Amino acid sequence: CSMSEISLQKPSQRIAVMNAHNLAGMSKEHMMDIRRQYCNPMTMKVTYYKKPVFLHQGYMQWLWDVDGKRYLDMFAGVATVSVGHCHPKVTAATEQQLKKLWHTTNIYVYPPLHEYCEKLASYLPDPLKVIYLTNSGSEANDLAMLMARLHTGNFDIITFRGSYHGGSPQALGLTSDGAYKYPIANGLGCTNTMCPDVFRGLWGGSHCRDSPVQTIRECSCAQGTQTHASIVICFLYIYTIQMAFLCLISIDHCMANEQYIKQLKETFATSVPTRIAAFFGEPIQGVGGAVQYPKNYLKEAYKLVRERGGICISDEVQTGFGRTGSHFWGFQGHDVIPDMVTMAKGIGNGFPMGAVVTTPEIAASFAKGIHFNTFGGNPMACAVASSVLDTIKEDGMQQNSLHVGTYLMTELAKLRDIYEIIGDVRGKGLQIGVEMVTDKVNRDPLPPEAMSAIFEDIKDMGVLIGKGGLFGQTFRIKPPMCITMEDADFFLAVFNKSIYNYMEKR
Q1: Closest C-alpha to 79, from 400, 422, 464, 407
Q2: Of 493 and 2, which is predicted with more confidence?
Q3: Are residues 24 and 153 in the same domain?
């Protein structure tokens, strides 16, 4: 039975065929020997499990190993497989382009590049309409740094502590996680400011973030807000609708946001020149553990950055293309329009691709010199990415992300209320983090050995998830956007069982 025939069958039929299919090839032992001997040692260092998963094939939200065992993929190759492994529509578009033209560059004018750029631009608000295509998110962020410095004439760039913006020599300066740092100079001119984390940070609580599930931490501004709200509600009955509007403004005030903005102002006052080049921020931190900020933080931060001559850059490598559910781009959930957007991962459903989108003015500054990319925007990448955009729209995947993701977070919050070691559940759509703690009072990270035990147990029961956070204390749930409610229930059962197993052993 061919792989194409398998893909057309019902899921239950595909499982049976895969299990019966002869997957014999290179032995696991031989693969691991090669990995140790011929692959860079880094590949062993990042091998996720004590008992590695030897993958053979994928279809939509499912993966099979070389023995035919099926896994529900709840990590999507680090939030990269946006519409599903080997999605039939994307596969067909890829095959069609493969027969026409594999490769050419911007030296020539070819339809796939221009068709895709026009289509991608239609998904972005004005004035974000000028696109440069790359091969990866790290490369896109490198290029964004260069563009920002050229346009502003300034050098310093600010990012959040705990952020991850890539592993290239320049992007490493943006990345603020010691595990990725080497004892050499990198990313000169990059400064990290306090991350406005309302769960683990100094301030925050149960009213701060844009998520279906709020932290159980008592809100820092609850007492004052409630008192003020009670007074204004009395005025609501006495005065006018205008006073009711003022009431809403008062209630929306967040003390945690105010404190984190003060920290940003302190960074401006102490760590960078009076004029800066840019501020980088993910709408929701990815590798950092799905960290979310107070609702109005980015809006106020953008204003402060622009007052100092800088541009605002939204890293949408993990939050873009409908993954957050409520919006197509993560920045839209913060009610801001950045000056530049970087993207990768889900843009090509796993095909190597990235992009920098900016304004005509910033793009003109970049065009003063020469920059050339051999593979960025090649015909294959553009055909794949164009099909991904069509598939997200036709299959309603953004809406599915909102529907299934909200259900997942709501149900995970119920498990948080049961288990002492589940400290926080957060996110939007299918960008979800579950932060594990030793106890809810101190919020100390669950130790690595405990995280690994739960992680391995989840894998052994047929589900693949990710890990993140500064201490590796957060489980990351970022599946292909095609998962169903039934898949969500299966994951929830496995996750519940794995936590129960750990607690029993402890």
Answers
A1: 464
A2: 493
A3: no
